[in-house]
C-alpha cells in the first residue's frame, strides 16, 4: 500500500546537480545568470499571485538584496537556482511589498505552489534552517565556514566537516481493521484539532520498531501489520516524516501517557467525514494518510 498522491512537501522537479557544489568556477559563473530565492530570517520568502495561483518571486543576482550566504539549490533546463540569506535589509522584511508580493513561510504556501516551486522552497527552507542552528563546530565550538555551495560547513580549527541534519520520524495511522482509527490531540493544540500518532526514531532502532514503540508509549496499544506508505520532508526544523499504517493487536483500550498528548480516542470514518475533528493541514503527510484511509472504506 502506498499513498495515492505525493505529499505536498515531497514534490520536486529540479535537478540538485550535486556534482556542481565543489566546482567554484562553475558556481561563480552560474551565479551571474541565476534565479535567486531570498529567504528572510523569519523563514519567509516573497510570493506573488499570478492569477492562476501563487509563485515564488525569484530575484536576479543584482537585485537579491544585501550580500549574504548563498546556497546552490540546483538547476532546471540549464538555469541555476540559488537561495540567499542576506540577514538584514529591506529585501527581507515580511509583509506586503511593492509589486503585490507577500512574504510567506513554507507552511502557508507550499500546498498551493507547483511541483517545481514547492521543491525549491522545501530545500531552501531546510538548508537555511540548518545554517541558522549550526554555526559552530560540534567538536570544538569554533565558528565554521561554509563550503560546497552551502551544503557543508568546515571547522577551521580541527578540519572536521559537518553536513545538514535530517532527523527520521515515524507517523502512523492505527486502525482496528474495520472503520475506526486512533487520533490524538497534542498538548499545545486547540480543542477539536486531532491527528495521527508520531515520534522520532531512536538510535539503533528500525522504523517498524519505532512505530510499535511510539504507539505503545503514547496510547498503550500493541500493533501488527505495520506497513510503509510514503515519506515527506518536514523542515520544522529538520525532520523526514516516514508514514505507516498499523492495525491494533489485542486490547483496543487506549491508555494515554499524558507526556505528549492531551487526549486520544478512537474515531469512526463517519465521525471524521462529518467534521467531528479538525484534521492536520493539507500540507502535511498526516492529512494524506488520513484522507487515503477514509477513501479506502
Give your account of this protein's structure.
The chain has 297 residues and is α+β, with helices and mostly antiparallel strands. It folds into 2 domains: 8-133, Alpha-Beta Complex (Nucleoside Triphosphate Pyrophosphohydrolase); 167-296, Nucleoside Triphosphate Pyrophosphohydrolase, CATH 3.90.79. Helix content is 21%, strand content 30%. The protein has 6 helices and 15 strands. It has a 4-stranded mixed beta sheet, sandwiched between helices. Strands 1-5-4 form a 3-stranded mixed beta sheet, with helices on both faces. A hairpin with a 2-residue loop joins strand 4 (69-76) and strand 5. The longest helix has 19 residues, at 115-133. The radius of gyration is 21 Å and the shape is globular. Mean pLDDT is 92; it is low at 88-96.
Number of helices: 6
Overall tally of structural domains? 2
What is the ordering of alpha helices and beta strands?
A: HEEEEEEHHEEEEEEHEEEHH
The percent range for strand residues is 25-35%
